[in-house]
UniProtKB/TrEMBL annotation:
PANTHER family: ADENYLYLTRANSFERASE AND SULFURTRANSFERASE MOCS3, UBIQUITIN-ACTIVATING ENZYME E1
Keyword Cytoplasm applies: no
Any one Gene Ontology molecular-function term assigned to this protein's record: nucleotidyltransferase activity
Name listed for the protein in its UniProt record: ThiF family adenylyltransferase
Length: 355
């Protein structure tokens, strides 16, 4: 393997070597004899193997291998031959994606591997309206290989404050057909399917979930729609990531089948309708309250991006999902500071069994 040093700067200071890779921190390494600085200098000149480095630096190859492993643990080196896809057009298309994943690349996990996982993924997007339209754009930007889009609404004038997939010339058209068209125009290499249908229960999702790697978005209309999605995904063992907004909170959550609590777990722990409490009052009235959709463009984009990034965590293994079995809530009255609120767990949950 030819190893290359990632973009960084270093400076010797006494017996230590200071390395700057991520601007949030300076890495301090012990280097009393200057060997680490010499190794970095050689790596910065051109990609090299451990054997060629040992020969150039006149040190045992075992010492070089050990030093490279230490640099790898700090995220400072990667496989030189796996930094690009090998296709100039695709490398240009995914220039920023490859640069992003380069930060997390390791010798045994090249940046192209993260992108390959996205290109091979199939995501089912439920709803291409408010947050959903932004979600579609974010997923397409990441290069998700296959998208199935589901919605039943048509484009209306009131959509234009927050749904940037659509144009005035689209008024009256099926949203999902136009969204699929947008994806094809944006990136012809993405396979996209439009499904114009109402979802009235978990069985309506069965044929859509078969074969997908992740479900993202959310269904409007019925107050129990999120339970249908949860049940259908749990049956299939597929992760879900859902986002939305109340009057003053942006929120998203995810469910990792077999590992996290699910939405039904939390639902089973809601207050009783007859309970004389704020929770009981809420449950008695939740179905009757009418809330005008207050979602605006900047918040729709926030929801779409948060859901897309959580989806990225599941699909690439970049890091563990942060919203698995929990609501992540961003309060508009508190500067959109995030707060994690875990689902209540139900040991005998009828959907997940209390995972």
């Amino acid at each position: 393997m030819r190893i290359v040093l990632k973009e960084c700067l270093w400076e010797s200071m006494g017996d230590e070597l200071l390395v700057l890779f991520d601007p949030r921190e300076v890495i301090t390494l012990g280097d009393p004899d200057g060997r680490v600085a010499a190794l970095l200098t050689e790596l910065s000149r051109a990609p090299q193997t451990a054997k060629s480095l040992a020969r150039t630096l006149s040190v045992p190859e075992e010492d070089v291998t050990e030093a490279l492993a230490a640099l790898d643990s700090l995220g400072l080196v990667e496989d030189a031959d796996s930094r690009t896809l090998g296709d100039p057009a695709m490398d240009a298309r995914h220039f920023s994606n490859l640069a992003f994943f380069g930060t997390f690349a390791r010798l045994d996990r090249p940046r192209t591997e993260y992108l390959r996982r996205l290109r091979e993924a199939h995501v089912l997007v439920l709803g291409v309206g408010g947050g959903g339209s932004s979600l579609v754009q974010s997923l397409a930007g990441l290069g998700i290989g296959t998208l199935t889009l589901v919605d039943r609404d048509d484009v209306e004038p009131r959509n234009f404050a927050r749904q940037f997939l659509y144009r005035h010339s689209d008024l009256g058209r099926s949203k999902v057909e136009r969204a699929a068209e947008w994806v094809r125009e944006y990136d012809p290499t993405i396979s996209v399917r439009a499904v114009d249908r109402w979802i009235n229960g978990p069985d309506d999702l069965k044929d859509l979930i078969d074969g997908v790697d992740l479900v993202a978005g959310g269904l409007d209309g019925d107050p129990e729609a999120h339970l249908w999605v949860n049940e259908a995904a749990a049956r299939a063992g597929v992760p879900i990531v859902v986002g939305g907004m109340t009057r003053t909170q942006v929120m998203y959550y995810s469910v990792d089948p077999g590992k996290s609590a699910c939405v039904q777990c939390d639902w089973e722990n809601r207050a009783d309708l007859g309970e004389e409490s704020a929770g009981g009052f809420f449950e008695r009235n939740r179905a009757g309250i009418t809330v005008t959709n207050t979602l605006i463009g900047p918040l729709a984009m926030q929801i779409g991006s948060l859901v897309a990034y959580e989806a990225l965590r599941y699909l690439t293994g970049l890091e563990p999902p942060v919203a698995a079995g929990a609501y992540i809530k961003l309060d508009l009255r508190d500067g959109l500071q995030p707060e994690r609120q875990p689902f209540a767990t139900t040991p005998d949950c009828p959907v997940c069994g209390g995972s």
